[in-house]
Amino acid sequence: MSKETPNEELEREFSDADSALSVGTDSDAEPSGEDRDQEQFQKEYKAIFEDDASEEKESGKELFLVSDPDGMASGFYDWVRCVLVAVSIVVVCLTFVFRLVEVDGKSMMDTLENTDKVLVTDLFYQPHNNDVIIISHAKEHKDPLIKRVIAVGGQTVKLDYDNDKVFVDGIELTEPYVKDGISLTEESKGKSKHLGINEDGNFVVPEGKLFVMGDNRQNSLDSRYPSIDFIPVENVIGKAQFVVFPFNHFGNVYDK
After folding, report:
1. What is the CATH number of domain 100-255?
2. 117 is catalytic
3. Of the listed 107, 183, 220, 223, which one is catalytic?
4. Neighbours of 150 (CB within 10 A)
5. 15 in active site
6. What does the pLDDT read at residue 9?
7. Greater confidence, 117 or 90?
8. How far, in Å, are 25, 111, 178, 191, 226 from residue 216 at the CA level?
9. Catalytic residue among 54, 57, 147, 158
10. What is residue 61's predicted lDDT score, i.e. its pLDDT?
11. Statement: the pTM of the whole predicted model exceeds 0.85
12. How far is it, in rounded angstroms, from Cα 117 to Cα 245?
């Protein structure tokens, strides 16, 4: 057995270390059983979860294509939605703000003709002088009435039959809307005792009530007659604003 010199022994140790390092970093080395198991697990993981993610992505893509905002179906649904919103607004307005009322009779000629369709406002409405109002039939009337407010509760009215004039609180009314310029009729003169007319020809409208007459004074059943009498304010449906049909009568009621 040969005896190694110190230099030879040192070279052998370095050679053994290099060999060990080379074995640990060799890329062509055979993987261990544990490494093979880990690699197989990773492949199975990718096969399961990445395939599912790919399917969900494709499914989401197809759903997006069906609801394409630029597509025909989307445009149709948007159009239907706009129509429904518009109809809802109209219904709410006609229920709580406006109403359409058809004129029945000739008592408001020439301001309103028979069968005219009138737009009526009723939201927070309080009657005032000269308003054309719609009156519910309540218990006293068979059908709704359309009349003009001549005086409100607390005002004094005088019907001057001799001079064919109407006074409210001592002031003569200017009534260009009255058909044929005739304000009063002898027929109504004999039936107006229920108004409480005093010896001066005046009467006071009770609080909470209205004195109304039609513009066609010769053919109007109104407060001058006991069957109509003073109108309770709570029986007022609303104020006539516009004639909307027929189109040849279209316009503001108070411009006629």
Report:
1. 2.10.109.10
2. no
3. 107
4. 22
5. no
6. 57
7. 117
8. 115, 9, 6, 17, 18
9. 147
10. 47
11. no
12. 5
